[in-house]
Known about the structure:
- Helix content is 42%, strand content 11%.
- By secondary structure, it is an alpha+beta fold.
- It has one domain.
- The strands form three sheets. The protein has a three-stranded mixed sheet.
- Helix 3 (63-77) crosses helix 6 and helix 6 (139-157) packs antiparallel against helix 7.
- It is globular, with a radius of gyration of 18 Å.
Amino acid sequence: MLRGQHLATAVIMMFSAAGLAADRGPPEAIAALTPLRATVPGTGFEVITGISNVDRATGLVRPELIRAIENWLSSRLGIAPPANPALVAFVTSRQIFAMRHRDVPADRMTSAGLAETLALYGDEELTIYLPTEWTGNTPAELSVLVHEMVHHIQNVAGLKYECPEAREKEAFAAQEEWLALFGMDLQGEFDIDPFTMLVQTTCKY
């Protein structure tokens, strides 16, 4: 994994329980549509699944969400939150893939490769790149943002690691903790098992 380019791979829709009971079918189907709620640890910010976290007026990720996650992640690392919040840009999956795999010709991009490139953080640009279809309306989508925000905080704080893979440990740990708030995990949402995690967080030398 190249420096400044990191894999991540990430809440909110309100339903009337009565309306669901009448129109949506059996109890198990209703439960699947029931919004989940969780408070970002150490903050008073509540996340509710099903509602887009992209402001339609500005096209930006909700700043209060960004700040809440940054405060939580900074606390986990034992450092002060960054003075300026992370920048977030929406680009196509093809663009994210191209930035992450600069040595791969465009005609060699595969659908599988594009699907596995969920997001990316650029150290020099201080920017998180998310796919254009990202809305942050699920715990999994938001966990992608959490993963990349860890890299932003690491970068701005000047934290040093043996290799790019080594700093993935903290990002994956925070992503796993985020998913746990909603009763989920990396293996269930992204098919990342302990062995895959070890490979992705171990220096190659």
